[in-house]
Amino acid sequence: MDRECIAMELPPMPYYITIGLSAFRPGEQHPSRRRLGIFDLLWVVKGTLFIGEDDRQWEVGRGQTLLLLPDRYHYPVKACETETVFYWIHFDFNGSWQQESDEKAIIAVPGRQIWANPYTIRIPQYASPPDFPLAERHLHKMLADSNQHRSAAFWNEQQLFLELLRLLEEKHPGIDVTPALRLAHRTEAYLRQHYQTQVTNSTLAEALHFHPNYIVRCMKEMYQCTPMEYLHEYRLEQAKLLLIKTEWPVAQIAEQTGFQHAPYFSNCFKQYAGISPLRFRKQYSP
Questions:
Q1: What is the percent of the chain where pLDDT is above 90?
Q2: Which of 139, 228, 255, 271 is deepest in the core (most CB within 10 A)?
C-alpha cells in the first residue's frame, strides 16, 4: 500500500468546488492533464482506473481513492479493462501543503498568530478507506445536491466534503499509530490541560508514566520542540488572548498562564511577541 500523504496546514480549510460521476467503458481511459491548478480526489465505485502522476502509477480499484495534485502531470497508464465508474471531487486549498511519508510526519507547534487554531490534516494520496460505503452515500448525496440552486446546496456540500476528508484521515492506517506519535499527542494534551500549573519534565513523566528523556525525544521528533518549549509558547499564546479579551492587570494574566513572576512574564512576552504586554493590548484597544 502506498504510504504517502498530503499534509495541509490549517487554517485555511480546504474548499470544495464541485463533484462529478464518470463512467468509462472497456477501452476508454482517463484524460491526460497538466497542472490542473486544483486538487482532484477520485473515488472508484466500480472497475479499475489505471492512472499515473509524474513518475508514479496506480491501479485504483473499487473501494479505493486517489488524490491527484494540482501541480503535476496526470495521464492514463492504460485503458480500462472493464466498465469503470468513479466519483471525482475538485477542491482548492490556498494554504501551505506538502507531500510526505506518514512515518515522518511532523506536527507544528502552536502558531504565533493569536487567531489561529493550528492543525495539520493528512490525507493519504492512495487509500482503501474501511468506511467506503459511508463515503459512497455522502458522495451520492453531494452529487444530488449539485443539481440544486447553489445557495441551497452550499452548506450541505461543504459539510459532506469535510466529512469525507475526516474519513480519509481517521481511517488511514499510517496515521496516529506509532508509539512516538501517540505519546506526543498525550504530552500535548497534558500540557494544554495543565499549562496554568507548574509543570516540569519530572511531573510530566510521572503523569504519563514514561521516562522524561523518552518524552522529550518523542516531542522533538513529532513537534520539533521539547515539552517545555511547547508549554512556554502555549502559555504565551494564551496570554495574548487574555490581554485582548480581558482587562486584567499583567500580573494577574501572568499568574493565570503559569508564570510565577510578572516581570519574568513581561520579559518572556517581549522576547516572543516583540513588544511588551501592555503595548500588545493597546494595539487592539479602541
A1: 75
A2: 139
- Which positions ≥6 away from 151 have C-beta within 8 Å? none
| pLDDT of 89 higher than 80 | yes
Q: What is the 3-state secondary structure (H, E, C) of 69-124?
A: CCCCEEEECCCCCCCEEEEEEEEECCCCEEEEEHHHCCCCCCCCCCCCCCEEEEEE
Among the candidates 171, 194, 209, a domain finishes at 171
- Contact between residue 61 and residue 51 where contact means Cβ atoms under 8 Å apart: no
Containing domain of residue 273, as a range? 179-283
152-186: pLDDT as tens digits: 789 999 999 999 999 998 755 444 458 888 899 89
44 touches 86 (CB < 8 A): yes
| Rounded Cα gap, residues 54 and 71, in angstroms | 10
Residue 119 to residue 53: CA distance in whole angstroms: 27
Per-residue b or e along 36-68, where b marks 16 or more CB atoms closer than 10 Å to that residue's CB: eeebbbbbbbebbbbbbbeeeebebebbbbbbb
What CATH number corresponds to the domain at position 238? 1.10.10.60
pTM across the whole model: 0.72
